[in-house]
Amino acid sequence: MNIGDKAPERLGLNEKGEDILLSNYRGRKVILYFYPKDNTSGCTAEACSLRDHYAEFRARGYEVIGVSVDSAASHRKFIDKYELPFTLIADTDKELVQAMGVWGEKSMYGRKYMGTFRTTFVIDENGIIEQIYLPKQIKTKTHAEQLLG
Asked: Alpha-carbon distance 86 to 27, whole Å?
């Protein structure tokens, strides 16, 4: 996906098993952020940064939606533990991560594996991608400040 592309209509099932559609957020901008795994240090820092600035995002007309390939049960625990006020998509079938181009081969300590590249898409009121933050650009502890600029 690139700037100017239309984001997928169906985002997937959230932590409650509800089907989340982009059209549910028409008239608002969406911060769709992809992260590798619930309850890891970087992903927790990023989620808490977004949580701590959630009221400001909402005041500016944004909705925040997180996505990882973790299960809905894992997402519920993550939301409860860190009091996250936004929904998390459980992309267990990897449909959205693949459609958005954020799933691929990663490497850690010389070991190669498939995973999610930490990426954030800012989607306008009409479902068009207007900004993309790539993995090397994202500072997990201050990601909300980066987005709010």
From this structure: 18
CATH number at 96 reads 3.40.30.10
Amino acid letter, 89: I
Q: Which residues pair with 34 in a beta bridge?
A: 67, 119
Question: Is residue 48 among the annotated active site residues?
Answer: no
Catalytic residue selected from 7, 11, 20, 43: 43
- Could you tell me the pTM of the whole model? 0.96
d(CA 18, CA 12): 8
Cβ(37)–Cβ(125) under 8 Å? no
Q: pLDDT for 90-140, tens place per residue? A: 999 999 999 999 999 998 889 999 999 999 999 999 999 999 999 999 999
What's the rounded Cα separation, in Å, for the pair 101 and 140? 20
Total number of domains in the chain = 1
| Residue 69 CB neighbour total at 10 angstroms | 23
For residues 76 and 59, give the distance between their C-alpha atoms in angstroms, rounded to a whole number.
25
Asked whether residue 1 is domain-assigned, the answer is no
Can you read off the two tokens belonging to residue 42?
A: 């970087």
Q: Domain range spanning residue 84?
A: 10-148
